[in-house]
Design goal:
GO molecular function, one term: carboxy-lyase activity
Structural class: alpha/beta
Number of strands: 13
CATH superfamily: Metal-dependent hydrolases
Radius of gyration: 22 Å
InterPro entries: ACMSD, Amidohydro-rel, Metal_Hydrolase
Keywords: Hydrolase, Lyase
Organism: Alteraurantiacibacter aquimixticola
Strand order of the largest sheet: 2-6-7-8-9-10-11-12
Helix content: 25-40%
Protein name: Amidohydrolase
CATH topology: TIM Barrel
Strand content: 5-15%
Largest sheet: 8 strands, parallel
Mean pLDDT: 93
Distance between the termini: 13 Å
Number of helices: 15
CATH architecture: Alpha-Beta Barrel
């Protein structure tokens, strides 16, 4: 089977960003507070901003020797030199996409940075990154490199940035780092953001984060093999409350044009939660007479109906999810390679798709690996200059 692959969760992390991203885009008034690279005499190069350490930079050799406790896609793909900043170099990234037979990437930005209490400085950092991503980086191949803008984790600042991006145009999706978003989503301060997203048609995504506050559960277990298993808990922990809030407080029902992508949290756990929400919805209406003189029940639609209308999920490789396609529906699953993260299947995407989807209906697979994304983001895959050749069981039978 030949088809264009669109990976809906890929990355451009802090360590892979060019050194001049913020310095070329931010006002001189910020001076030394502007995010910049500091090269240590004994140690790795660091991103520093406003006197705070943001994280490592791979543009200089890390000096790490010996076995690694965790492998990235680059390790599995035989790439040892990270100083070329492959994910942040459009030419090299496109070469890596060609190697993987992937036509387009949805590119999420740093998941560990832009962490500052100064709101004005924070807003300037977000705006500078988003402008660089959409105006500099992705313009190298606009049909293939699809930037996901970053929104500040507070409602007023997120609204201002989304409004700014909408006026400029060219933004298809914006990401809210939901694990650190404050206040919780039922707060009315978020309402203008939901309205703006619906009006502009920009898709909103929630993506897993690795801020120190989120990963504090790991501190006690660092250096233990058992800590590896905690990731399974951390991913769902970050999403469960906000996911339920979307239904419990009527956010999606009030805004039927709002589209949500839940990224890199897995898709297999979602059906039970939605099933349970449907049951609770039934229990609520079972007692409708109780609510008659208390304002009534605003939750008219079943959560599962709202879910299929408005929620999408990404996954890399998941036999469980493939067994749940009837629940998700034909258009709501979005395949991803997660390049170049540790969980990534790059550069073996075609082999993994064949392994986990080769037994399925080819038209359904075409939707999952690219067609659904094309519809959601307005992509014209008829113009795709690269199509993957995916071995399917039907091909073997015909041979």
């Amino acid at each position: 089977m030949e088809t264009a692959l669109v990976s809906c969760d890929d990355h451009l992390d802090l360590n892979m960003l060019p050194a001049n991203v913020w310095q070329d885009r931010m006002s001189e008034k910020w001076g030394d507070r502007t995010p910049h690279i500091v090269e240590q005499e004994n140690g790795p190069a660091l991103w520093m901003a406003d006197g705070e350490r943001w994280g490592f930079w791979s543009g200089r050799p890390m000096g790490f020797k010996g076995p690694k406790p965790i492998h990235t896609a680059y390790d599995r793909g035989g790439i040892e030199d990270l100083t070329e900043l492959r994910a942040g170099n459009a030419k090299l990234r496109l070469e890596d996409m060609d190697r993987d037979q992937v036509w387009a990437h949805l590119i999420f930005g740093p998941v560990t940075s832009i962490n500052t209490p100064d709101e004005a400085f924070m807003k300037a950092c977000y705006a500078a990154y988003n402008d660089w991503l959409l105006e500099d980086f992705c313009t190298a191949a606009p049909d293939r490199l699809i930037g996901v803008a970053m929104l500040p984790p507070h409602p007023e600042a997120a609204f201002d940035e989304l409004q700014r991006l909408a006026k400029k145009g060219g933004c298809r999706q914006a990401n809210l780092q939901i694990a650190v978003a404050e206040p919780r989503l039922e707060d009315k301060r978020w309402e203008p953001l939901w309205q703006l997203l619906e009006e502009t048609g920009i898709v909103l995504s929630f993506h897993v984060t690795v801020f120190p506050g989120v990963t504090k559960a790991f501190d006690k277990y660092k250096g233990s093999p058992g800590a590896t298993f905690l990731h399974a808990k951390m991913f769902i922990d970050q999403f469960l409350d906000p996911f339920v809030d979307l239904f419990a407080w009527g956010i999606l029902e009030r805004h039927p044009g709002l589209k949500i992508v839940i990224a890199e949290c897995g898709a297999g756990w979602v059906p039970w939660v939605v099933e349970e929400l449907d049951y609770r919805h039934h229990r609520l209406w079972e007692c409708a007479d109780f609510w008659d003189d208390k304002g009534g029940i605003p939750h008219e639609m079943k959560p599962s109906e709202i879910f299929k209308r408005q929620v999408y999920g990404t996954f890399q490789q998941s036999p469980t999810t493939m067994a749940l396609t009837d629940f998700w529906g034909k258009e709501n699953l979005l395949w991803a390679s997660d390049y170049p993260h540790p969980d990534s299947i790059w550069p073996n995407s075609v082999a993994k798709i064949s392994e986990h989807m080769g037994h399925m209906n080819p038209q359904l697979v075409k939707g999952i690996v690219g067609g659904n994304a094309a519809k959601l983001y307005g992509l014209d895959l008829s113009k795709a200059g690269l199509k993957a050749r995916i071995p399917m069981e039907g091909d073997k039978a015909a041979a």
